[in-house]
Write a structure and sequence with these properties.
single chain; alpha/beta; Rossmann fold; seven-stranded parallel beta sheet; 10 helices; about 15% strand; binds NADP nicotinamide-adenine-dinucleotide phosphate; binds ligand G4F
Amino acid sequence: MKKALINGITGQDGAYLAEFLLKKDYEVHGIIRRASMFNTQRIDHLYRDPHDPNARLFLHYGDLSDGTGLRRILEAVQPDEIYNLGAQSHVKVSFDQPEYTADVVGTGTLRLFEAVRDHLKNSKSDIRLYQAGSSEMFGSAAPPQLETTAFEPRSPYAISKVAGYWFARNYREAYDMFIANGILFNHESPLRGETFVTRKITRAVGRIKLGLQDKLFLGNLDAKRDWGFAGDYVEVMWKMLQHSEPDDFVVATGEAHSVREFLEAAFIHVGLDFKKYVEIDQRYFRPTEVDHLLGDPSKAAEKLSWKPKVSFQGLVAMMVDHDMEQAEREKLLVDAGHKVGQEGVANG
Ligand code: NAP
Ligand code: G4F
């Protein structure tokens, strides 16, 4: 049985990837951060008590800021594959916390690679690594962007991801380590964090439709993104590690839409006109914006036989339908006299 170690298993992609790998009969180990409240909601449905002889998902406390801990986890788990998905992944937050973002996203990636490098020397085992790069690395480079497009990053987050990308390239060349760089364009789902724009919109659609919320405050509606479905994208992470050699791959749909188009499609799905509910708030604008991301996934299609299955309209419908159900549950609580907060919506 192959063993995979997922750093960032509690995030959107980590949850989909864990499910995908369990279905492929992997033993899956995940690194979680200690928090004052439970933070494993996205993977609770996959978890079994470790005393159960059939348990194949195991969790370990760790953090990208703690290299010693990462080394101990490697020794304990002895993984065949490592997926580095851990990150402070919010672009706007990276302007508020640039040092922290650089430490976790840039230097944290280096800490993990160093731990693996030493582990390989001592154990003589074979480990393949996936490094979560981002289309944000392209920044202001003209679309369409592909593997050969020069990076022009426009945020502390994107610059830190560029560092991670180049650490991967350097460790691949210098130490012959198998590290694949995935350059993934935006991917969304019902598990998407509530402060990213798609989920912020679809949650608001459900709540507005049921009278739980009056207004939705957003920033720049003109930015264009190449939005795909996270469930489709975790498959290609795995495919990169099954490939004959470590390489860099752009993962995208090849279709871009503006935030306004996403907004319109989401509100129309429940029969509402977004213009009646949306207001612009300067606090959601970034000091430097990435205007147009549109990926060319030809290399992944050709070398990994991968293509996305869920369309833009399918993605919008999936997310709105999910968040309508969530709003219905919320309304039941409100009608029964409970107070329900709007956690996450304020700072998105
Ligand atoms: P996400 O939902 O924000 O999940 C991030 C994960 O990283 C969470 O499990 C989080 O733990 C963990 N994490 C945060 N700080 C950490 C630290 N100091 N040490 C270890 N783990 C830490 O992000 P995602 O959407 O799943 O994205 C996965 C990866 O792909 C990220 O690296 C992201 O930057 C990158 N990416 C995402 C997209 C996209 O569109 N989704 C596109 C390109 C690249 P907590 O749950 O405890 O916060
Ligand atoms: O949903 P977003 O916050 O995603 P962004 O900045 O594109 O980053 C996401 O995708 C990257 C891949 O390209 C990942 F690497 C990264 O980790 C993350 O997953 O914002 C999308 C667009 C931006 O142009 C933003 O300015 O939506 C615009 N926007 C407009 N109003 C808003 C809002 N974004 C947020 N989060 N909240 C708003 O109210």
